[in-house]
Design goal:
Order of helices and strands of chain A: HHHEHEEEEHEEHEHHHEEEHEH
InterPro entries (chains A, B): Dimeric_a/b-barrel, Dyp_perox_C, Dyp_perox_N, Dyp_peroxidase, EfeB/EfeN, TAT_signal
Radius of gyration of chain A: 22 Å
Strand content of chain A: 15-25%
Number of strands of chain A: 12
Family (chains A, B): Belongs to the DyP-type peroxidase family.
Oligomer: homodimer
Bound molecules: protoporphyrin IX containing FE
Structural class of chain A: alpha+beta
Distance between the termini of chain A: 28 Å
Shape of chain A: globular
Subcellular location (chains A, B): Cell envelope
Number of domains of chain A: 1
Number of helices of chain A: 11
Organism (chains A, B): Cryobacterium gelidum
Function (chains A, B): Involved in the recovery of exogenous heme iron. Extracts iron from heme while preserving the protoporphyrin ring intact.
Chain lengths: 435, 435
């Protein structure tokens, strides 16, 4: 039986084969005993028969490596993000086992394979399939799966250190401060654990979150989740800049993977930053930002451009040039007013106003139907990666206080996670935290 | 000023240029007076700079034609569906004007152009942009926009014939019957008007619905809307069969565009069927079907296959063969039981059990976050096109009574629309209804 020989004690390595018994129980209900030996369906073979539109995005990113994938990886087009709470009664050993199971499944899916040894369709008939199957025949489409740990994982519950992690908590891993204008829904905020699944095919991203939730059964449960249908940032100079739902290019001045020095300085936690277990990792901030597009759509073009400080067409700074020209914040126009106004989003968010701070933005547009008044429930699911949460907090405080954009947006969800470094093959995600 | 010279009386033709004054007011708030002459941004030019993943699905389908696009069009990958109610106080002339405005905008977007004469970025600075802009730089990605009329459009309100259409109502255009197990949410059902926007790029589909809602401002408001991220049917033999969220191939035995006789017999309303204004049109049924995937995921493989009567891997009938083999409903296996059981979905839905009736299925998978219990709010947004609503009703009654699948699904939304024939260039969608 898959993985049944594995000891349940915490150790750094994962067994060479398969999910834990608990992971299989999550998949299987009661009847895993019948599982014999086999080989998981290889989706790549099936993918050969897929249509051209399905075959787009045949990129594949390895799960194992020095840093987790899904951070400097060129932003894929679609997102399924999920926050989990570890279920009451789950022990430290069981949490570790969950992370081990997740690691095995994530590595498998990232390589275009099903979850489990048999996958979706080749298992025994008297067991639930190990994989739910809706990604059969689809290419990996650049799937990355990125894990994070929320502040509450390091807390006590009823006076007891939940997982023996209280003393290992990074000093900076606390709830984000309250910002002016915040209108947060607790049901869309926070969480013990998070998983960011990105792919160029939404069905592949959804498949990943669904199968990981299923594996977590009894150990951790979905707290909230968010689908994003269009990336709002480029994270590589090889990508065209996409547009957000206000119709503006988004990601122009983003950190790009091709700037390794900036990435090192702004994105990765260094060994000196501490704690040691987080070295090579990062902090992930997620903000669900509702955009009141009906109001925006009634504002005139000059106001829209003034709000951002960039043109709507080319995305050039209002101080002139083309999309990638450096903005000149001093340049004045009529009546000696700066062309990029004092309340313009790009002025306030620019490193010049924030002691040189940059963020790696990796957000997605969302539309979740409409509200009772017939307004689209639309916005930006903002995600940023940074070496310290203080980077986000500094920029966001600046924006929350002064940004002209505030008239058109509302922050309704918020979460912060510590994202451990990448996982070496044979280990599991976050292992150094438990060492 | 765009379209301002046009008489407001109802006629079959639309003005050669631009949206009505009301449509522009929907876009613009108060300040349209400043609009001069110009040319809408051509997105195709911008698209040249798009990344490869953005460029996928460069297909383009003409909006004008004999039948509306989006029915036998090879099913695109993504959906944004919206139902509208015409606002109280809107007159018949205003309704016609709305349909004219929608026609112009839909034809423009279907050809990869912005809405309006100036589009998103080239308009005067003291007016709101005519197009919201988030599809700038994206190819059309096979966008189709399909309009339908709900039963309530043909009703009286407070004793008054809302739009003078009471006597033009097709006899079959009434609410669908209540089926056993129906658990419908009125907030996700029905509507005076519907728009189905399909594209291989979700941002393009969202852009279409958003701009059409905006144009409707003051005349019709969103009642409900649904995003679908993965098509669950192939409607052309050129397409691979996709999978639904239960992991099964879906669309195998669907009507295909390559069977013109079947399409004529089963999908298009004929002149003899009546009413005359609907000839060449169809009926659209939408059902929001919640799938309880957690329960499904715990059922064993043999049960899953028995429920559908097909194999999970290849999608072949349990009576043998390959995906496209005809099922043999008589063939018995062990203990003389038919290999495709009495309650199997494909047996009950097959034309053999339904007097030869077929449906053109064109549904989409959806995941709308999760519910409070941490279960994914997931399912199938079922769409079918048929010559008569009775076709759907017959099949669905059969399924609602006997289908083994009922243990795992719940119908939570329902709507029926009459879909008029295609629009000739120079006319507007549904014009014959008002002639
Ligand atoms: C719905 C909310 C938001 C929208 C629509 C939005 C949109 C934009 C746009 C259009 C740009 C200019 C192009 C670019 O460089 O990407 C931009 C820049 C930027 N934004 Fe935002 N943004 C939003 C929220 C935020 C938040 C919450 C933060 C962080 C706290 C942020 C941080 C930045 C940064 C750092 C830049 C680059 C500034 C520069 O260096 O020029 N944005 N944003
Ligand atoms: C969540 C709900 C549903 C699921 C998961 C589902 C799934 C499937 C699957 C896997 C097949 C076999 C492959 C194929 O031929 O496409 C199928 C066939 C079919 N389904 Fe459904 N279906 C659902 C609801 C419905 C509904 C509501 C109707 C219509 C009332 C319907 C009508 C049909 C028809 C007509 C066939 C083809 C039968 C044949 O000729 O072999 N289905 N469905």
């Amino acid at each position: 039986m898959t993985g049944s020989k594995r000891a349940e004690s915490a150790d750094l390595a994962v067994p060479a084969r398969g999910l834990s018994r608990r992971g299989l129980l999550g998949l299987a209900g009661a009847s895993v005993a019948g599982i014999g030996m086999g080989v998981a369906g290889d989706r790549a073979a099936l993918a050969a028969s897929a249509t051209p539109e399905m075959a787009s995005g045949s990129a594949e990113y390895p799960f194992y490596g020095r840093h987790q994938a899904g951070i400097v990886t060129p932003a894929q087009d679609r997102l399924h993000f999920a926050a989990f709470d570890v279920s009451a009664g789950t022990t430290r050993a069981e949490l570790i086992e969950l992370l081990q199971d997740w690691t095995i499944a994530a590595a498998s899916m990232s390589a275009g394979r099903d979850v489990g040894e048999y996958g979706a369709v080749s298992g025994p008939y008297d067991s639930p399939p190990e994989d739910t199957g809706e990604a059969q025949g689809l290419p990996t489409a650049g799937l990355t799966i990125t894990f994070g740990f929320g502040p509450t994982l390091f807390e006590t519950a009823d006076g007891v250190d939940r997982f023996g992690l209280v003393r290992r908590r990074p000093a900076e891993l606390t709830s984000l401060p309250h910002f002016p204008g915040d209108d947060l829904d607790v049901g869309r905020s926070d969480g013990d654990l998070c998983i960011q699944a990105c792919s160029n095919d939404p069905q592949v991203a959804v498949h990943a979150i669904r199968n990981l939730s299923r594996i977590a059964f009894g150990r951790a449960a979905l707290r909230w989740s968010q689908l994003g249908f269009g990336r709002t940032s480029s994270t590589s100079t090889s990508q065209a800049t996409p547009r957000n739902l206000f119709g503006f290019k988004d990601g122009t001045a983003n950190i790009k993977a091709e700037e390794p020095d900036v990435v090192t300085a702004q994105v990765w936690v260094s060994a000196a930053d501490g704690p040691a277990w987080l070295a090579g990792g990062s902090y992930l901030v997620a903000r669900r930002i509702r955009m009141t597009i009906e109001t925006w759509d009634r504002s005139i073009l000059s106001e829209q451009e003034a709000v951002f400080g960039r043109t709507k067409g080319a995305g050039a700074p209002l101080s002139g040039g083309t999309e990638f020209s450096e903005p000149d914040f001093a340049l004045a126009g009529r009546a000696d007013q700066p062309l990029i106004g004092a309340a313009a989003h790009v002025r306030l968010a620019h490193p010049a106003q924030n002691n040189g701070t940059k963020l790696l933005r990796r957000g997605y547009n969302f539309v979740d139907g409409n509200d009772e008044l017939g307004r689209l429930e639309a916005g930006l699911f903002f995600i940023s990666f940074q070496r310290s949460p203080a980077q986000f907090a500094a920029v966001q405080l600046n924006l929350a206080k002064h940004d002209a954009l505030n008239e058109y947006i509302r922050h309704v969800g918020s979460a912060l996670f510590a994202v451990p470094a990448g996982t070496p093959e044979g280990s599991y995600v976050g292992a150094p935290l438990f060492a």
